[in-house]
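**User:** My hope is that you can spare some time for a protein that puzzles me. I have put the entry right below:
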Amino acid sequence: MGTVVLSPLARSFDGALLAVGARADEAGRAAAFADLARRYCESGRYYHTLRHVGETLTALQLLVAADRAWDQPTGRAGVLSAVAGGRLAIFFHDAVYDTCAGDNEARSGELAVATLTELGCPRSVIRDVDRLVRATGTHVSAEPDEAMINDADLRVLARPAPAYDVYVRRVRREYGWASPEQWVAGRAAVLRALLDCRVYATPWAFHHWESAARANLRRELADLRRVR
């Protein structure tokens, strides 16, 4: 029987499962990733794709390394929790994505619970992953590991202006059903909510990304106001 060659994302997902103690065999783990990959490749997705998953995983890795280097008050338990369940949470956090619905994160959390239970993951890990996935719905962080996941998810907001604009165009395509008026009203509300408080919760991300993110958000909001 030939060796199965896994993609980098598939290897990352499989490694995360093994790291948290999943008891499922290789075939079961591979089937779970295949289901997630199918979801992220659904028609109508332009930003919330496997590329977003990969970029968010990279951002989490950076934040974990920065936390260790800065010795910030998230504490070792917070870092370890983010590493253990965080990668799995990132794989599941946009698995259910319907731009007409308001419960995507809750449904993604439910999917994570069902899938990880079937894969034989410890109950404590399943609870953590569910909590982390649901936290991305509001990007309000009550725990250190939630802060890391939310900041990783919002990494795109601090990208250079051209990359940020590509992100906005891709999200707009996902809301292709919305009229220009609906898009402007809804997007402006999202931008104002982000600007009303600090964007990034972790000290390192706030120090390095906050200024750029706020500049992008203000610029986009000004552009929307000119459209009205």
About this structure: The chain has one domain: 8-227.
